[in-house]
């Protein structure tokens, strides 16, 4: 597998059915009714309904640690060398789960992965759009005791009807605190949401961004500023925001337009695969030529929030992988 960076994965979206059953039993809870409801979904909200119902089995620090460890072990096997993972604290604190159980469980597992796999990691706390800006601001204040352990903030959950500009104040506060800022935009909603994420929130990366392609001026800005787009092809198929076949996915258009697009897994327990599965599926479907897989890894590493030294290490690993395959170096020779 190409060494790469995972930049768009929701930890709660890595909750596999066997772990749901284990946690339900351990916590004395019924197995959620929708445990086996899998892709495709009619739309984002239909998926989110299943996702929020299933994550109810997560109750203790140990649960969050096990979830995170299982994901990181799987990611390491997929070639991931650096992972910036999303967590949705409000989906847990709203159920009465202590914030400390969530963050200490996740952070402990992230630390342990460094020793086990040499994985570097970062944690991005996402605000749930459907709970509104005041709840997001409260969440940011609540996580401040962990400020030094957090990489950044993000914005996720139901998109249409919750434009980025609603979250202007909380993102400004995050910027003051020196946190990195990312936002889901242009997944279901149009290019106006991507503009707002950039111009109002100061988002440094756009999660998805597919619908930016509908606006030529926006495409030009994304290209000129080389704003990273973290694209999730299997997610887009599962939620019917692209497709119906992977070959119809706009990834190759994004790359042809000179955008800094990279491929990620979003909610791999729900959408049919982890990063290795996704890249294989793209190649098999002819959505991108095999020769582009190295470039996607380079784009991911260029989009990561890492030090220059770590970026160089990751790029060197990609160059070495290409050399081992007898391929041109994608770090120097873009496909
Ligand atoms: N694909 C997605 N879009 C928005 N919010 C999410 N939360 C988990 N997966 C998501
Ligand atoms: Zn996402």
UniProtKB/TrEMBL annotation:
Keyword Metal-binding: yes
Origin superkingdom: Bacteria
Classification via InterPro entries: A_deaminase_dom, ADE, Ado/ade_deaminase, Metal_Hydrolase
Sites where the protein binds Zn(2+): 8, 10, 184, 266
Keyword terms of this UniProt record: Hydrolase, Metal-binding, Nucleotide metabolism, Zinc
Chain positions recorded as substrate binding sites: 267
UniProt keyword Hydrolase, yes or no: yes
SUPFAM superfamilies reported for this sequence: Metallo-dependent hydrolases
Chain segments annotated as coiled-coil in the UniProt record: none
Cofactor: Zn(2+)
UniProt cross-references to CDD domains, sorted A to Z: ADA
MF-aspect GO terms: adenine deaminase activity; zinc ion binding
Annotated Adenosine deaminase domain residues: 3-319
Active site: 187
One BP annotation, GO: adenine catabolic process
Enzyme Commission designation: 3.5.4.2
The protein's role, per its UniProt record: Catalyzes the hydrolytic deamination of adenine to hypoxanthine. Plays an important role in the purine salvage pathway and in nitrogen catabolism.
PANTHER family (alphabetical): ADENINE DEAMINASE
Protein name in UniProt: Adenine deaminase
């Amino acid at each position: 597998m190409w060494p790469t960076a995972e930049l768009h994965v929701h930890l709660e979206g890595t909750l596999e059915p066997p772990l749901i059953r284990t946690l339900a039993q351990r916590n004395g809870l019924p197995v959620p009714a929708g445990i086996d409801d899998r892709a495709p979904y009619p739309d984002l909200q239909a998926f989110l309904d299943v996702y929020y119902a299933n994550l109810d089995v997560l109750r203790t620090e140990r649960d969050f640690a096990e979830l995170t460890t299982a994901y990181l072990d799987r990611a390491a096997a997929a070639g991931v060398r650096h992972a910036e993972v999303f967590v949705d604290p409000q989906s847990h604190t709203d159920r009465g789960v202590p914030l400390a159980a969530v963050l200490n469980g996740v952070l402990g597992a992230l630390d342990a992965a460094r020793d086990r796999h040499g994985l570097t990691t970062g944690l991005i706390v996402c605000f749930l759009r459907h709970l509104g800006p005041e709840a997001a601001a409260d969440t940011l204040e609540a996580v401040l005791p962990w400020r030094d352990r957090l990489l950044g903030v993000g914005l996720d959950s139901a998109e249409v009807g919750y434009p980025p500009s609603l979250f202007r104040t909380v993102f400004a506060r995050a910027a003051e605190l020196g946190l990195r800022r990312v936002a889901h935009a242009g997944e279901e909603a149009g290019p106006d949401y991507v503009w707002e994420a950039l111009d109002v929130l100061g988002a440094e990366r756009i999660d998805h961004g597919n619908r930016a392609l509908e606006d030529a001026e926006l495409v030009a800005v994304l290209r000129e500023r080389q704003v990273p787009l973290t694209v999730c092809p299997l997610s887009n198929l599962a939620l019917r925001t692209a497709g119906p076949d992977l070959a119809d996915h706009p990834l190759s258009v994004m790359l042809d337009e000179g955008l800094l697009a990279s491929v990620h897994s979003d909610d791999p327990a729900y959408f049919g695969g982890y990063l290795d599965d996704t890249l294989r599926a793209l190649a098999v479907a002819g959505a991108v030529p095999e020769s582009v897989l190295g470039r996607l890894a380079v784009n991911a590493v260029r989009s990561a929030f890492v030090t220059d030294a770590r970026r160089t290490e990751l790029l060197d690993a990609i160059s070495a992988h290409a050399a081992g395959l007898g391929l041109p170096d994608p770090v120097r020779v873009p496909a």
